[in-house]
Amino acid sequence: MKVSVYNQKGEVVGDIELNSQIFGVKPSSHLLAEAVRIQLANSRQGTSNTKTRGEVSGGGKKPWKQKGTGRARAGSIRSPIWRHGGIAFGPRANQNWELKMNKKAKTKALFMSLSDKAKDGRLVIMDRIVLEKAKTKEFVNILDGLKKAVKEMGSKYLFVLPKKDDKLVRASRNIVSVSPSLANSLNVVDILKADSVIMMKDSLPVIEKVYLRKSLDNK
Question: CATH classification of 2-42+101-217 is 3.40.250.10, yes or no?
Answer without folding.
Answer: no
